[in-house]
Amino acid sequence: MNSLEKLIADKARIQAKCEVHKQKMEANLDYIHEHGGKMVFTSVKDMIFPGKKDGKECVDHKSLLSSFGVSDVVGAGITLLPSILGMFKPYLFTWGLKKGQSLLKHLFFRKKK
Question: Contacts from 75-81 at CB under 8 Å and sequence distance 24+?
Fold first, then answer.
C-alpha cells in the first residue's frame, strides 16, 4: 500500500466517523429540542424544591447554593435569554405600539391654549 492509498483509506475512515458523530449529535439535539422545556422546568424545580423524589438522593440546599458562581448564573441567563425574550416579545410589542400611538397622538393632536 503506497502513501496515496493510505491517505484515501484514512480519509474514508475519518468521513465515516464524522458521519456517525453527526448522526449522534443530531439525535441529541432533536431530543433537547423536543424535551428542552421539561428539562429546564425540572432543573429549576429541583433547585427551588430540593428533596428526595423518585429514588433520587436528597440535595443539600446550602451546598447547592455555595456551588453556584457568578459565571454559572450569567451562563444560565444567557442560555435562557432567547426563551425569555420569546415569551415576553408579544407584551413588549403591544406596549411599544401603545406607547408609540400615545406619543404620536400627543405630538399631532395637542390642545392649543
Answer: 80/40
CA distances from 89 to 34, 54, 63, 80, 83 (A): 22, 37, 36, 14, 10
Q: H-helix or E-strand containing 57?
A: none
- pTM more than 0.70: no
Q: What is the Cα–Cα distance from 36 to 20, expressed in whole angstroms?
A: 23
At position 2, the amino acid (one-letter code) is N
pLDDT tens-place string over residues 59-97: 554 554 555 566 666 677 777 777 778 888 889 899 999
Cβ atoms of 67 and 59 within 8 Å: the answer is no
